[in-house]
Write a structure and sequence with these properties.
This protein is an all-alpha fold and about 130 residues long. It contains seven helices and no strands. The N and C termini lie far apart (about 70 Å).
Length: about 130
């Protein structure tokens, strides 16, 4: 005979969750940062959904950042296509805008397969804008 899962009533589940994170300032701030409405804050499934999205996104971002670091311009790939691929992958990195712009520029230059063009770009002495 299959065993039916026994779920806590909503009020008890919420109380158990709040009790579990009580005193953990980092988790309390994280949940508060979701900016849930009063009704959403009473729904354990809504809180769990937000927690899953938050933590699962981090794993995806690390994967995307690794792909970004390993990118190189393909043989016979145009500079325009390479730039587009760098920008497309860069959208998945979740860095601050200033950092992202610098990373995209650096990856574009370091991954280019034309030594002469890379040398010219490096010789220009690109400076980060303050």
């Amino acid at each position: 005979m299959p065993v039916e899962p026994k779920w806590l009533p909503k009020g008890k589940a919420l109380a158990a969750f709040r009790s579990a994170i009580a005193g953990n300032e980092e988790l309390e701030n994280l949940v508060h940062g979701f900016q849930l409405s009063d009704e959403e804050a009473k729904e354990p499934n809504v809180i769990l959904k937000h927690l899953q999205e938050h933590f699962m996104a981090s794993e995806g971002v690390l994967t995307e950042r690794t792909k970004f670091v390993q990118m190189k311009q393909e043989y016979q790939e145009s500079v325009t296509a390479w730039e587009g691929r760098v920008k497309e992958q860069g959208r998945r990195l979740e860095y601050c805008n200033k950092c992202e712009d610098q990373l995209l520029r650096d990856k574009f230059i370091s991954g280019i397969n034309n030594e002469r063009l890379m040398s010219k770009l490096l010789d220009k002495g690109h400076r980060d804008k303050q």
